[in-house]
Amino acid sequence: xxxxxxRIETGVDKERSALLLARLQEANTAASPVIRALRGTPQDxxxxxAVWLMxxxxxxxxxxxxHTWGRWLHVNHxxxxxxxxxxxxxxxxxxxxxxxxxxxxxxxxxRVETWDFQAPGFxxxxxxDVVSVIPDYPEGAKEFxxxxxxx
Length: 151
Fold this sequence. Notes:
Layout: H1 14-31, H2 33-38, E1 47-55, E2 59-69, E3 72-80, H3 89-105, E4 109-115, H4 120-125, E5 129-135, E6 142-149
Parallel strand pairs: 3-4
Antiparallel strand pairs: 1-2, 2-3, 4-6, 5-6
């Protein structure tokens, strides 16, 4: 048996990161018929999605940034300025992102992560269901993952 010497290295390396991602995608494609069927389709592309709420004098007062992939909308960030909270603007931003994802990108579902001090109640009010809670992420807070069927 041949003895191998392995070493652990640290540090950010864009080329290695790209190679790591490519090898992981190859392994996932080989292991999953679902992922294999997704490869090469329009739903396999991670496509950014953004919705902005602009006010004539204030400029940006709210927005949603996310992406679609695998027939899912991923809501990464949703914010409405404190001055305009409670007026239904967050719901309008989310509804527009869901509409684009469903009607223009053929998405079936949506997902979001939020902390307990942010908006889990808001998302539940928009029809999202809690699918996981991670306590102490970060320490002293809870992270919620919520999902919703779009169709």
